[in-house]
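Input for the complex:
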Amino acid sequence: MKMDDRKQKVLLAIVHDYIATAEPVGSRTIAKKFRLGVSPATIRNEMADLEEQGYIEQPHTSAGRVPSEQGYRYYVDYLMKKHDLSAEEEDLIRSEFDIKVKDIGQVIQKTGQLLSQLTHYTAMVLTPSIGSSRFKHIQLVSMNPTQAMVVVVMDNGTLHHRLIDIPESISADDMETISRILNAKLRGLTNENIKLTLVKEIYFELARHKHILDLAMELLEDSLTMKSEDKIYLGGVFNMLNQPEFHNVEKVKTLLSILEQEKLLYGLMTGEEQEVGVTVRIGGEIKNKEIKECSMVTAAYSVAGRKMGSMGVLGPTRMEYAKVISIVDFMTKNLSQALERMMKGTGK
Amino acid sequence: MKMDDRKQKVLLAIVHDYIATAEPVGSRTIAKKFRLGVSPATIRNEMADLEEQGYIEQPHTSAGRVPSEQGYRYYVDYLMKKHDLSAEEEDLIRSEFDIKVKDIGQVIQKTGQLLSQLTHYTAMVLTPSIGSSRFKHIQLVSMNPTQAMVVVVMDNGTLHHRLIDIPESISADDMETISRILNAKLRGLTNENIKLTLVKEIYFELARHKHILDLAMELLEDSLTMKSEDKIYLGGVFNMLNQPEFHNVEKVKTLLSILEQEKLLYGLMTGEEQEVGVTVRIGGEIKNKEIKECSMVTAAYSVAGRKMGSMGVLGPTRMEYAKVISIVDFMTKNLSQALERMMKGTGK
DNA sequence: TTTTAGCACTCAGCAGGTTAGAGTGCTAAC
DNA sequence: GTTAGCACTCTAACCTGCTGAGTGCTAAAA
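Predicted:
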């Protein structure tokens, strides 16, 4: 859909001004602020055309124009110029990821805080999960006469644990033995790599502990396929309340009720087949019906080409797309690198 | 401060009606709804007295009266009748805790959800932490040539972990040895029990691994003294938005900004020396200046007399104190029992 | 002395009406 | 194709008066 050059300029002006002011944009404003070299009347004509084509709309008869979802989409796809982060912003992000990683959970949390702080919207970060991570270590720990804890450590630095019931007849030494054998057989394997023959072998060796083995293998299976619920870090929800579109309490309520449902959020983050790079979803392009007048900018972070998790920003459709896209892009890259360093163990 | 019997009845009527309707209560309303056997005029006189003594106040000249913080305090201390939970509520709570505990984190989260669901206010639950828990197991897991993960399991079912740098010279076998020795020497000890002599002994045996030992002992120390940040589970924030006092967006904003600061919340939950049983803090009795017109009802849960953590409800001062107190009380008791069962391993 | 009825007074909130200003669409001239 | 001018529309802000809830005071009743 080719568009007249001047029309593009008008649309761009409307989008920019509306993003900046949250007020419907009039023809006079455009003529004054954006110096297109034509009079308001001409701009009015262009605007009438743009409205007919669905790129902008009018809240009411005597108001200015506001970009439609289609308008934002056109802006993001064709008009938007790359936004360069300020040196301070880049430094802030770099220094954030330049620390020694002690605990992945903490890094994720910090990432979320920083993301919301820089964008002034709500940030969502998914913990490392998807993808085939490798099994590092399993340990059975006796907790009391009838229970033990199974701890599984994965190579991406995540931990999984579960309490299981055990027969009283099992001794601490037995558990040590089980742990040792499981480790010896399975270390370094991904889910796909665990061959049936291998499992049979283990069951054979540990026949008398079948019951425990069942429970341990179950957790292991969950850890490897990452069924275990992934955590989502949410930050800067109250940033959204500073946006004029959320001065209405009803809207705040629906927003909050959505953000409290982790599963729903999880669906939002993983729902779309995420291509490489940054994905922008505008308004109705977000599948969820309850989320209205919002856009999401998401991207995946990865290690050695393996997708680990994703982060994203939720804001009003009137979002500073260019800036947010740059930030999300830069942060995923830095997070990926930091995790890469952590997993490879290359230096600080 | 002894109070006239009829004054008490009037105060009670005002508190009850205001809690129910959120509207200032007038003399006529009291006379009609609460049948004290006297006319509105008499009640007006009593109300004038109550206002003079500071138990109630008037939003503006021609409005009814509203309980003051002092009024709520008097209500909670002297007037409130015990609220019995409905059979359904009790069943709901019991069935919640009657499951087999697989993971403490999950139980905490569910507890928070249920608490907010039953009270319709915001629930806060602190993970098990304070108190001297015992060390169960430590494990060093090699992650890559230069890093290892230290995993510590505590007897209250919590896990702590941290990535540490290691010299390349250390082999996986070395780490296994270190783990084994640490476990043998330290299992079952609390922080106070770890004697200096014992530590020296360990350092002597593992002299050549001093560096790793330092890092491992650091995590251990943190785990035992529970310095590591405790998690707070928050639930039902959006419940608060249904309260008429939060129809003002500004108030919602300050509330949310507070709830996003975990440290602040942590201070709120642990700040007061929590006595046994349920604590009620009304309005200004909450230390935080930013929290206005809110009350908190908190209680600790414990295992075998050892305080483990606490849970609480944050709501407007116009809170259904009697009901909330009963719920918090009942839930802490049930949670304590569930954890007790888990740690003792006595059946499901 | 306590309670009550009656009455004048106060004030928030709402409905209705008016105005100001922003912005449009159309028309006719450039 | 562009622009100035103008009539028109609609919202938001402001004023105004009214209503109703609720009070405090006074004087009479119990």
